[in-house]
Automatic annotation (TrEMBL):
Top-level taxonomy: Eukaryota, Viridiplantae, Streptophyta, Embryophyta, Tracheophyta
Keyword Ribosomal protein (UniProt): no
Compartment(s) where it occurs, according to its Swiss-Prot or TrEMBL record: Cytoplasm
Protein name, entry field: PUM-HD domain-containing protein
Keywords: Cytoplasm, Repeat, RNA-binding, Translation regulation
Protein source organism: Brassica carinata (Ethiopian mustard)
Coiled coil: none
One Gene Ontology cellular component: cytoplasm
GO biological process terms held by the UniProt record: regulation of translation
Domain (PUM-HD) ranges: 143-479
Length: 479
């Protein structure tokens, strides 16, 4: 029999067999054999097909039969890689592995792991299990958890095309980092069912730390939090707080700080609140720039009993924070919130460190802001704290503004401050910064103290006329 007759008979045999076989299988087989492979699949179409396959609960036997019917031009591939044979005979195998087939290996439903194709000794943990690190490399703590049971259908009907190991299928986490795909995922989360939300959650939970600092991924994470169950919120909290250095990096990033701030709004149970506030307390000193909004959010949202440790960290490091460019602004925001516990505790520390804060380029703004709040008791305490140092402060570039602020307060008697300035009046009359303080004191003091000032000015007038700063006082007072 020649080769032409063999080809003719084989073609007729395939036509007859195609009539008897399932049309769906024939179409799938023909598409896989005749269609050229596409270089880059559409992520939206793959997402639609992946989620629909999960919902339909694709039968494992159908997948295996379809895979087994494929022909291989090189028969040696089965010998070189025994896992290809195991894919077809796994259900009848006598080994202890009992589960489904993935694109990267075999699923062991008894132990909850994927066995790697290249080495059965290295497990690949499923997305449907609890993790031991942010990257999903930890051991499975509880295989009978409610979260695993809720996703058992997904695990039993695992589709190879939805596996992260399949190079032809982009993971949900990578889709979330793409601008157009991120918008599509947000729409699916908003309009989809709970099953859709669970599938997307499984796809991003192991990459949650990277997505929270991604310009597009953070929108998916924040939208996902709106649909997450309390158990899923707990998993997010566990993932981002497991490693403190990673949590600090997230909160120090402007995009990551917004993501964590959104997460704070969805905390409900006390365990979640305590876990997050403790992590923020440990890194509070590093949050003076981007992460200061997180500390402020904690003070506004949670009860003082939950934020006491955080408040103590801020109060004990008040001097360090107030002398920082961003920290001084953060303290001013803390003083402006409606929580009296926070305000009183920080006020005590500011008064105790007032002298050092007044001479600092940033700390002086904290003292001035405390005066602007208009609390007479706080103002009197500050005046007493600085008494005996006003002449020294008046000669300082930054503290001189604080002294002028004290003198311009209408509800206090400035006599004690002016008398303190008179002890070093000869120096202040020709000082680059003290001359402004003397000018302010002249207009706010009483007549008795003004006469004393006039005698000192008359005595030093020849020297003041030869000094640029002393001459400013004479011009201002028309002397």
């Amino acid at each position: 029999m020649d080769s032409s007759s063999i080809n003719t008979n084989s073609k007729s045999y395939r036509r007859e067999t195609a009539k008897e076989e399932n049309p769906t299988l024939v179409n799938q087989r023909g598409a896989s054999q005749l269609q050229p492979p596409q270089s880059q699949p559409n992520p939206h179409r793959l997402l639609d097909e992946g989620i629909s396959r999960i919902y339909s609960g694709a039968d494992l036997q159908t997948l295996e039969s379809s895979f087994g019917s494929l022909s291989f031009t090189n028969s040696s591939a089965h010998q070189q890689n025994p896992f290809l044979n195991n894919r077809r005979t796994n259900r009848s195998s006598s080994s202890s592995i009992n589960g489904c087939v993935g694109s990267d290996g075999l699923w062991d439903s008894n132990n909850g792991v994927f066995l790697n194709r290249n080495s059965q000794d290295i497990p690949y943990y499923s997305r449907g299990h609890r993790w031991g690190s942010n990257y999903g490399l930890g051991s499975v703590r509880n295989n009978n958890s409610s979260w695993r049971r809720s996703n058992q259908g997904f695990l039993n009907n695992h589709d190879p095309s939805m596996s992260f190991g399949n190079p032809r299928m982009r993971s949900i986490a990578s889709l979330a980092q793409d601008q157009s795909s991120s918008a599509e995922l947000q729409r699916r989360i908003s309009q989809g069912s709970k099953e859709t939300v669970d599938v997307i959650f499984e796809g991003v939970i192991f990459h949650i730390c990277d997505l929270m600092v991604d310009p597009y991924g953070q929108h998916v994470v924040r939208k996902l939090m709106e649909r997450c169950s309390p158990e899923q919120i707990t998993q997010i909290v566990d993932a981002i707080t497991q490693f403190q250095f990673r949590f600090v990096n997230i909160c120090s990033d402007p995009v990551g700080a917004l993501s964590v701030k959104s997460l704070l709004r969805f905390l409900r149970c006390e365990e979640q609140i305590v876990r997050m506030v403790r992590a923020i307390s440990l890194g509070a000193l590093a949050f003076t720039s981007s992460g200061n909004a997180l500390v402020l959010q904690c003070f506004k949202q949670f009860h003082p009993s939950h934020t006491w440790d955080l408040l103590e960290v801020i109060a004990q490091n008040c001097l360090q924070i107030a002398t920082d460019e961003y920290g001084c602004r953060m303290l001013q925001q803390f003083l402006d919130i409606g929580c009296n516990v926070v305000k009183q505790r920080l006020t005590q520390e500011i008064i105790a460190n007032a002298l050092r804060l007044c001479v600092d380029s940033f700390g002086n703004y904290v003292v001035q802001y405390l005066l602007e709040l208009g609390d007479p008791n706080v103002t009197i305490c500050l005046i007493r704290q600085l008494l005996g140092n006003y002449a020294y402060l008046a000669r300082n570039k930054f503290a001189s503004h604080v002294v002028q602020k004290f003198l311009n307060i209408g509800y206090i008697d400035p006599s004690s401050i002016v008398r303190d300035l008179l002890r070093d009046i000869d120096t202040l009359l020709c000082d680059p910064f003290g001359n402004y303080v003397i000018q302010t004191a002249w207009f706010v003091c009483k007549e008795e103290l003004r006469m004393i000032l006039m005698r000192h000015i008359d005595r030093n007038k020849p020297l003041m006329r030869c000094n640029m700063y002393g001459n400013k006082i004479l011009q201002r007072l028309n002397l």
